[in-house]
Amino acid sequence: MAGEGRGAATGDGAGPPAPERVLFPPTFSVSEIKNKQRRHFMFLRWKQQQRKEKLALKKKRRKEREALGDKAPPKAVPKTIENQRVYDETTVDPNDEEVAFDEATDEFAPYFNRQTVPKILITTSDRPRGRTVRFCEQLATVIPNSHVYYRRGLALKRIIPQCIARDFTDLIVINEDRKIPNGLVLSHLPDGPTAHFRMSSVRLRKEIKRKGKEPTEHVPEVILNNFTTRLGHSIGRMFAALFPHDPQFIGRQVATFHNQRDYIFFRFHRYIFKSEKKVGIQELGPRFTLKLRSLQKGTFDSKYGEYEWIHKRREMDTSRRRFHL
């Protein structure tokens, strides 16, 4: 009897097989594991199991759709922060006569009416470091007819009248902190407005993987994507006014300002048509990300300037689904 009991316990006999051990029960929590290495290992196992279950469900749904054919229900649109965005009253309607009138009489109207040619001055904060200097030089190769000036102790209020006297249409100031570029001021001349951005994720050309050759002097094409509100239109028109009207398509270069969740991503690419349906692109650099902090009327005046819009985090960032551009 003892032998039979041992046989049943070990599964050597004809007894029922032992049930499969469940790796992760429903109430499993990785945080309950005290050992750090074991906790990390189990977390990776759990993530792997989640991916397998998701892939299996995806394959099952695809087979069901293939079996149903034309009778298959339409694919469900995944919920994202973008398509769940809170409606903004200032969203621009392309057929709005009031918006068309305002844009025909604003500070950028001379540029869009081809009465002025963009001429840009790029400068820095006082006594810039090497990384900021290289970034300004590379930015000057992206924006045609731009000039780099390194100021030493000269106030912006003294620079702006000199820029206007020399027919500059825009002033770009790159600020830095601890030798890293962290801010950008864009002022449209001679009457403004002036935008102040926080800059992050700056990558120079040598830091970009699989980058293309040096950009040529051809005038690039410009893409402004997802600037939908009145404020977004103003910012988009500021960026557009930096580039000449007629791009040189033979250069196959394109500068992109893509707005997503109020972050403006800048990329500079060269493209090539491999066939009628396939296009290859190479990033040329530099790349950076901007976040609007304020929009000021007129030229730069930090003391007496009148602000059209200021980003106030505690009041404006109450919802993740609310955007301003």
TrEMBL record:
May be required for ribosome biogenesis. It comes from Chloebia gouldiae (Gouldian finch). Its main location: nucleus. This is Ribosome production factor 1. GO terms for molecular function: rRNA primary transcript binding. Residues 1-23, 50-76 are annotated as: Disordered. Keywords: Ribosome biogenesis, rRNA processing. PANTHER family: RIBOSOME PRODUCTION FACTOR 1 (PTHR22734:SF3), U3 SMALL NUCLEOLAR RIBONUCLEOPROTEIN PROTEIN IMP4 (PTHR22734). GO terms for biological process: maturation of 5.8S rRNA; maturation of LSU-rRNA. Residues 1-14 have a biased composition (Gly residues). It is found in: Nucleus, Nucleolus. Residues 118-301 form the Brix domain. GO terms for cellular component: nucleolus; preribosome, large subunit precursor. Residues 64-73 have a biased composition (Basic and acidic residues). SMART domains: Brix.
